[in-house]
């Protein structure tokens, strides 16, 4: 059983199909019920177009039980976040990150083609299809004592993943003025109140790829000014044209409307230290990635562009050398 703010997920046996399923039982609160009905609508739309069922979790059925919306899903494995957590936040090998990234971008491109924006992409919402894993030596920890077993780490047996949690998914034509995305994966245009669209998903993908190859969330913060300061520390200064257009609520984060109010506006010394300890994006990737680092850095610079109009689209990202160079090396047609 897994619990969350929405309710809980139960593992059950479907007597008709004779298979194990996951049932999401949504709390009997109106806003959660509304989100659940949106999710059902999106899942059914995705299911009609995802014939092979390889991109997004498959809905089996749904019903209303004592004012609780219950959604029946196929049973999948753990989320990428849970896998990282149980592995002491040790990163995935770069070739596995590449395969996760390719599938994630294919799923996002599929959704965007259907005029759908996920708006809540994060490792918790990406599930491994299988729970099986293998133990392999972790060469970074080989010098440690063998007693605690820390020189081994787990790797999933299969790299197959699927997207879940479409309760926040938005159709392109709907209102886009509210705040979206879980904090760590939230794009700058959302924080600045500039409006958002498909590119907000691509920013989240960039944050996710960094986390998968480093083991830690890129922007570990809980408030906007610190978040923007972290972005500038890792990626360089925010563009003036975005600062000038920031909405009234975001104006307070800038000095005379031109420069981020940092570190002057920091809430604590701990906050300043949290920002200053962050390396530049290139250095961060070089710390964790042995080969393909150059291609990955270039891909991330395209996904984490401040201006959403300049950010890579999902299908553009899939054509990036980080993915295609590896295929050419093994003689696959492109």
From TrEMBL:
Keywords: ATP-binding, Kinase, Nucleotide-binding, Serine/threonine-protein kinase, Transferase. It catalyses: L-tyrosyl-[protein] + ATP = O-phospho-L-tyrosyl-[protein] + ADP + H(+); L-threonyl-[protein] + ATP = O-phospho-L-threonyl-[protein] + ADP + H(+); L-seryl-[protein] + ATP = O-phospho-L-seryl-[protein] + ADP + H(+). InterPro entries: CLK_kinases, Kinase-like_dom_sf, Prot_kinase_dom, Ser/Thr_kinase_AS. One of its GO terms (molecular function) is protein serine/threonine/tyrosine kinase activity. The keyword NADP does not apply. CDD domains: PKc_CLK (cd14134). One of its GO terms (cellular component) is nucleus. It is an enzyme of class 2 (transferase). Its EC number is 2.7.12.1. Residues 1-323 form the Protein kinase domain. It holds the Pfam family Pkinase. The keyword Magnesium does not apply. Belongs to the protein kinase superfamily. CMGC Ser/Thr protein kinase family. Lammer subfamily. This is dual-specificity kinase. The lineage of its organism: Eukaryota, Viridiplantae, Streptophyta, Embryophyta, Tracheophyta. The gene is LOC105174405.
């Amino acid at each position: 059983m897994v619990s969350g703010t929405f309710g809980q997920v139960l593992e059950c046996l479907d007597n008709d199909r004779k298979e194990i399923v996951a049932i999401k039982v949504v709390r009997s609160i109106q806003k959660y019920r509304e989100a659940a009905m949106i999710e059902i609508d999106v899942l059914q739309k995705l299911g009609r177009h995802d014939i092979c069922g390889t991109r997004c979790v498959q809905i089996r059925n749904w019903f209303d039980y004592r004012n609780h919306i219950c959604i029946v899903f196929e049973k999948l494995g753990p989320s990428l976040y849970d896998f990282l957590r149980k592995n002491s936040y040790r990163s995935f090998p770069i070739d596995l990150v590449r395969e996760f990234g390719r599938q994630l971008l294919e799923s996002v491109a599929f959704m965007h083609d259907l005029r759908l924006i996920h708006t809540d992409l994060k490792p918790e919402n990406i599930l491994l299809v299988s729970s099986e894993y293998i133990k392999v030596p972790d060469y970074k920890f080989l010098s440690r004592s063998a007693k605690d077993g820390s020189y081994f780490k787990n790797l999933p047996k299969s790299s197959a993943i699927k997207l879940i949690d479409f309760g926040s998914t938005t159709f392109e034509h709907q209102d886009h003025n509210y705040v979206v995305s879980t904090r760590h994966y939230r794009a700058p245009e959302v924080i600045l109140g500039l409006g958002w669209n498909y590119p907000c998903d691509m920013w989240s993908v960039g944050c996710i790829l960094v986390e998968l190859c480093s083991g830690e969330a890129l922007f570990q913060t809980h408030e906007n000014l610190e978040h923007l300061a972290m972005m500038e520390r890792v990626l360089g200064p925010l563009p003036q044209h975005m600062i000038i257009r920031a909405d009234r609520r975001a104006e307070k984060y800038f000095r005379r409307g031109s420069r981020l109010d940092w570190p002057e506006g920091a809430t604590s010394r701990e906050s300043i230290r949290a920002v200053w300890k962050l390396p530049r994006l290139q250095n961060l990737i070089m710390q964790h990635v042995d080969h393909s680092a150059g291609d990955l850095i270039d891909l991330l610079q395209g996904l984490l562009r401040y201006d959403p109009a300049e950010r890579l689209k999902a299908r553009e990202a899939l054509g990036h050398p980080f993915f295609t160079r590896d295929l050419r090396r093994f003689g696959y047609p492109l």
